[in-house]
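From the pipeline queue, job 12 of 40. The input is one protein chain; the requested action is below.

Action: predict structure.
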Amino acid sequence: MNKTVNINLAGVFFHIDENAYTKLQHYLDAIKRSLTNTQGQDEIIADIEARIAELFNEKIKTDRQVIGSKEVDEVIAVLGQPEDYMLDEEIFEDEPVYNKTRSTGKQLFRDTEHSYVGGVSSGLGHYLGIAPIWVRILWIILTLASSGAFILIYIALWIFVPEAKTTADKLSMRGEEVNISNIERKIREEFENVSGRMKNVDYEKYGNQARSGATSAAKGVGSGILFLLNIFVKLIGVLILLIAGTTLIGLFIGLFTMGTFGLIDAPWTDYIEMTAIGAPLWLLSLLAFFAIGIPFFFLFILGLKILVKNLKTIGTPAKLVLLGLWLLSVIGLAVIGIQQATQRAFDGEVVITETLPVTATDTLYLAMQSNPKYTSGIRRGGVSIKYDENDNKVMYATDVRLVIKSTKDSLGRMEIIKMADGSDFRDARDRAESITYNTTFNNGKLYLDSFLTSPLQNHYREQEVRVVIYLPEGATLYADSNISNFHRSSDYYGNILNYNTEGKYLKIIENGYTCEDCEEEDGDWNNDSWEEDTEDPIEENGWETDSISGEVKVRLDENGIQINNRNSDKIRINKNGVAIQKT
């Protein structure tokens, strides 16, 4: 059994067996000998060791796994032997070394060497193959168009995208293969940049890379298809990133700024509290933010991972914390939703009966009335929040329904039915009792409130008022036009008042009325007045009419329809079909 040696490569500890360690040591010694009298020798050796450590990390699965000769051979195969590029330099001394460089997939890094803030724009420029200035201009445009929201996306990229610190990172950022030759070349280029000899080398280097890329693209359709697929995947990543980022920004602004911390006093927050079950708005906002925002946060990370292969992970503890917050938020919202449903499970009502001093010989004038302190309009349907005479918030609703019925009693009466939902019968009844509704009767005129009010702390639980007026048979009703919205669609409740009968004198009869000042064709209305055995006048005598000029006559009888034209044909339509008689 071989001995195990602990080594430190670029600050990372590895367990390696003795034979593999000897082979790795000989390899590093050969590299050092090949770099004798080379400018930047120490930097090149440090970057090569960092690259070896990175490759070892990719091959081991556990911290205790021992590096063997197989792993060392695979690393040497990736980096190459020192003799390979030494021979190339001797033969092609005047030719640029980077002509042999193979292009690999680019990785997204932050290029802090050519940055103004965090290196995000210059790193994206390398990744997309465009000048960083265009990326910076795009950031400015998007930031201005989104009122500064894209700054958060820039900060997120700054946090999660790693910086290109080592030479291997800088090569990966440009899509170049990370081997000894390229590492040495990159170090030399950096020294040449310091001495002012970078400019011409850069032009030739990028020109050669462009020619090499064009040649590689033309070699096969497969490379083109892979390129298109890669672009498509990147576009999906950008789309996911934009959707998730925009959603997170909207949630942050909408759920935290408005109402949660009181930074903006939005009027609709009162309506949320009015319909809620008593849970504070800030708690609902936090639960909704975590329940919706955490999945979109992971979508945001997914979009970044599609774009950045070596993206820093947020760590397992952070993932578990976010997962726990999400589960608690979903459970909390579910509990609140169930409680909200149980708050409306039962309905209760309170009936108040009042005598109306209206006899069979009296006339009742009926109208709806509003309260100018609340609103001047009179219309049914709707809930809002108003202030009462003591400047206290109250729930203001116009869910008032009017029903007119006949009675054989000598005096009329009025039933005010207050209704509401609750978690049980008692709760529903208590909410119904808390409804405030007023009526006024004076000199044969009855005024009904077009609204109801209830304390805001009772919340909205389908509070409603139904007013049923019983009038003695023989009494006369004159209804104002403003009641039309309140008695419409009340047939289910036995309402005898027809639509469009407002503003007319109606004499109450059993289950109906007769109109005293209607047109003759309007006739009377009675629920029991329709006789099924009424004979059809068309069946008895038929029906005939002339056109204005008298040229065309149309007759409808039991034999069908006959159309006569004095100057042309006759047409008869019956059960046998259509017959045309030429004249």
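Job complete. Residues 87-103, 197-201, 527-540 have pLDDT under 50 and may be disordered.
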